[in-house]
């Protein structure tokens, strides 16, 4: 339960912010003097705001009052209608666009120093000669060391308009190195990993549905087919959703003819159907879809369509249960409103939105309730379904309301850490250790040429554990005498996170999947 509590805020924020954007992803400008918000007279809310501004005894921040009023109003609607402050709009839109303008590095701040932990291959920093392990001293004329430096500050220094230059000075092997970096478009990849598990089985993990997702997916599929792929494990675990049309384009690659993929309809939105419109790249090969409780929105569109048409075996746990469609409207001050305008329905007519009539707090806690009532461990059952039942052409019973129930259940891993081990992950100590350990032993790790080679041959996790114990102790965290089960689990993570450090997410998944219950079950299902 502790593990679920630790990840719940991040999990729900991803589902709420990214997954809710299942609509057309069109950002429409709010009209000025006339339009959908102009009723011809001032609203009572505007009258009150004007009176407060003109007459109130003390000075007030009307922007804060306005935002609070909007939030209070939206609280009476569904949980996915949200106001986005102007300061957050750019970052959220970048994630959905699938790119941003910058220099292409990942970094950690360790001991008041910004360390380069990853350099995007063929990106601006790579072309300028930056290396993993470089330490930023200056960006332009600004010194970026010391206690005042933060992640947000360094991002603001490094990001800028594509094509503009930024001069940086780094410390490398005890020497100062200066170079100019030309900022460019940095991709935010949707496809985390795509590789061949065996000679005929491909694997793709997708983390979201952004503006570049379908293009990335097709490149991955074509590469895997060129390597002999006949069967596919498509992993949408943890995918909070995104742009609807990216999801329907992907489903189109799995279904033949002009089959219905999904349709949307609302009180003020006409019914809109999304059908297959082209010959698919993988209409016949065996297909398994992996989902879990954080697979939401557009992920559920994919799962619902493939399940309704008996096209894929769904493995995992019941999905989040978001069946609402949002559109985003830009507001005059740079903020935005994402408003639910319709519901979506699977080909059989299922709406899988879970109830939200008990308020947002209860809605936010629904995943924790699944753990409390044993569902995440023991599986969903017919008796727990309150939504209507539907039957596929092959006679399978599927349900509306509350997400997509998988065909094959995989229990949630209930292994919990002792409190000291949790501290390693709460404050990024573990992540920083992985980077430092890699840097200290880079010559050793260079012998592993591929993630598969690393998965087979790297087994010296006990030495790494001992180094972690020493590193944690220097940071006032004692993990010397934790239970053996904690050591075993942490050593597994050392291996997978080192793979991520070396090969990014591709390496992480390839190494992690070697010991993944859902992957093992999927491979068994492939043999049937």
From TrEMBL:
What are the protein's UniProt keywords? Hydrolase, Protease, Serine protease
Which CDD domains does the protein's record reference?
cpPDZ_CPP-like (cd06782), Peptidase_S41_CPP (cd07560)
Q: PDZ domain spans which residues?
A: 101-174
InterPro entries (alphabetical): ClpP/crotonase-like_dom_sf, PDZ, PDZ_sf, Peptidase_S41A, Tail-specific_protease
Reading the lineage from the top rank, the first entry is Bacteria
Which intervals hold domain Tail specific protease?
174-355
PANTHER family in alphabetical order: CARBOXY-TERMINAL PROCESSING PROTEASE CTPA (PTHR32060:SF30), TAIL-SPECIFIC PROTEASE (PTHR32060)
Give the similarity note. Belongs to the peptidase S41A family.
Q: What is this protein called?
A: S41 family peptidase
Q: Which organism is it from?
A: Niastella soli
């Amino acid at each position: 339960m502790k593990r679920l509590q630790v990840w719940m805020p991040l999990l729900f924020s991803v589902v709420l912010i990214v997954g809710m954007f299942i609509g057309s992803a069109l950002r429409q400008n709010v009209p000025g003097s006339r339009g959908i918000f102009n009723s011809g007279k001032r609203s009572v809310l505007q009258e009150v705001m004007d009176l407060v501004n003109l007459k109130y005894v003390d000075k007030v921040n009307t922007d804060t009052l306005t935002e609070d009023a909007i939030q209070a109003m939206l609280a009476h609607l569904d949980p996915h209608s949200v106001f986005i402050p102007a300061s957050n709009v750019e970052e959220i839109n970048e994630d959905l666009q699938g790119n941003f303008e910058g220099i292409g590095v990942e970094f950690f701040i360790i001991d008041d120093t910004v360390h380069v932990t990853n350099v995007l291959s063929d990106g601006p920093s790579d072309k300028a000669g930056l290396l993993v392990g470089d330490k930023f001293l200056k960006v332009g004329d600004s010194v970026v060391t010391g206690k005042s430096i933060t992640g947000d500050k360094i991002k603001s220094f490094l990001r800028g308009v594509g094509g503009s230059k930024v001069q940086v000075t780094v410390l490398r092997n005890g020497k100062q190195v200066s170079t100019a970096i030309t900022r460019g478009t940095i991709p935010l990849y949707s496809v985390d990993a795509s590789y061949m598990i065996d000679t005929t089985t491909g694997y793709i993990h997708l983390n979201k549905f952004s503006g570049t997702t379908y293009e990335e997916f097709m490149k991955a599929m074509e590469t895997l087919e060129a390597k002999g792929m006949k069967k596919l494990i498509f992993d949408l675990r943890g995918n909070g959703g995104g742009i609807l049309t990216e999801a329907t384009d992907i489903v189109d690659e799995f279904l033949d003819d002009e089959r219905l993929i999904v349709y949307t309809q609302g009180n003020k939105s006409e019914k809109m159907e999304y059908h297959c419109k082209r010959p698919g790249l993988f209409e016949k090969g065996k297909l398994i879809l992996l989902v879990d409780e954080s697979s939401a929105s557009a992920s559920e569109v994919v799962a619902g369509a493939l399940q309704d048409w008996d096209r894929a075996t769904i493995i995992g746990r019941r999905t989040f249960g978001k069946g609402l469609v949002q559109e985003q409207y830009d507001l005059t001050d740079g903020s935005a409103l994402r408003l639910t305008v319709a519901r979506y329905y699977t080909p059989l007519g299922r709406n899988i939105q879970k109830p939200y009539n008990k308020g947002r707090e209860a809605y936010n806690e629904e995943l924790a309730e699944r753990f409390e009532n044993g569902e995440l461990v023991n599986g969903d059952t017919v008796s727990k379904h309150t939504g209507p039942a539907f039957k596929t052409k092959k006679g399978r019973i599927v349900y509306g309301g509350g997400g997509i129930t998988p065909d094959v259940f995989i229990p949630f891993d209930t292994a919990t850490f002792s409190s000291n081990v949790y501290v390693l992950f709460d404050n990024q100590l573990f992540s920083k250790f992985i980077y430092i350990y890699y840097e200290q032993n880079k010559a050793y790790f260079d012998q592993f040429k591929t993630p598969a080679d690393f998965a087979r041959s790297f087994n010296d996790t006990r030495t790494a554990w001992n180094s972690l114990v020493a590193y944690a102790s220097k940071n006032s965290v004692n993990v010397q005498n934790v239970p053996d089960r904690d050591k075993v689990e942490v050593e597994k993570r050392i291996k997978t996170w080192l793979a991520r450090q070396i090969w990014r997410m591709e390496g992480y998944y390839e190494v992690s999947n070697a010991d993944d219950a859902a992957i093992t079950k999927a491979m068994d299902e492939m043999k049937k």
